[in-house]
Amino acid sequence: MTNKNLVVLVAVAAPLAIAALYLSSSSRPSGAKLNGEKVLENLDVSKVSSIAFSDKLSLSSGTDGWKIDSYYGYPASREKIADNLLKLAELKVGQVARGIKIEKPLAVRLSDAKGKEICSLQLGERHAKWGRGRYALYKGQSVLVSDVLDAFDASGDADQIAKRWCESKIVDEPWISFNKVVDPATDAAIFGFATGVVAKVTVGSDTNVTLTVGAALKDSTDRYIKLGNSSWVYTVSSYSVESFLPKPTESKKNEEKKAPLK
Q: What is the mean pLDDT of residues 63-68?
């Protein structure tokens, strides 16, 4: 083959190769191009100072750390905040969910310290099969994302929603987890702490924390408790504090001792 023929061959082949590449690229379904893309590209989690979704949950960061504004301002778990923000930062499109319509998406909003929105995300339901991810809206299409994002869930009551963002375990030894955080505006007279049982428990590395067990809730076996001088009051299952309560026989003996002689 002469040099002249080689030059002609290259000149003809180059446009054909470019055309073939273009046709190959354009023939790919548009949805397939989204696979593997980060949903919240360039999200800087260090700038996030507020997290909110629907009207069920709002959290904010301040000088005292993160708190759950929608739950009386109760302290949030720094570890859970960090974990969930990192999940959002790493969230990727698994595949386009063709034929799936997200009827009522959950709007997640992340804002900075000045209240300016950093980004938002529209989440749908979890995939019916465990481990297959969750539906979301991305670039106008329904997609399956790589994580179910359990904490971003508006189902359940206020206590259940808040517990996904705070530590429900409040005593390490014996293990005690709260059922509810009591509204700070509640009349303190119903707690029964003045005549309650006082004991020492372990919280973290502190083995000398005062626990006060108060009265049982109306129409419930749950009891009110508080720790030390904290302003927070909790309700807990009675079985978690029953070891501190007087046994029925002891109570009866005490009543007999106090009974006047006839």
A: 96
Does the pLDDT value for residue 93 go beyond 80? yes
Predicted confidence at residue 5, as pLDDT, reads 47
Strand 93-96, strand 106-111: pairing? unpaired
Residues 168 and 33: their CA atoms lie apart, in Å, by 42
The single-letter DSSP state of residue 166 is S
Structure tokens at 150: 């359990």
Distance CA 88, CA 161 (A): 18
Which residues, including other chains, have CB under 8 Å from residue 238's CB and lie 6 or more apart? 216, 221, 222, 223, 245
pLDDT in tens, 13-29: 455 444 444 444 444 44
Q: How many CB atoms lie within 10 A of CB 241?
A: 21
Spatial CA neighbour of 209 closest among 230, 191, 192: 230
In angstroms, rounded to a whole number, what is the distance separating the alpha carbons of residues 228 and 212?
A: 8
Q: State what percent of residues in the chain have pLDDT above 90.
A: 73
* Residue 90 pLDDT class (50, 70, 90 cuts): very high
Measure the CA dihedral 154/156/160/164, to 10°.
-30
pLDDT in tens, 231-241: 999 999 999 99
Q: How far apart are the C-alpha atoms of 165 and 144, rounded to whole Å?
A: 24
List, in order, residues 6 or more apart from 206 with CB less than 8 Å away: none
- For 159, the token pair is 């206590």
Tokens encoding 246 = 């007087």
CA–CA separation, 60 vs 74, rounded Å? Answer: 11
H helix or E strand, kind and range, residue 25: helix 3-27
**pTM for this predicted structure:** 0.80
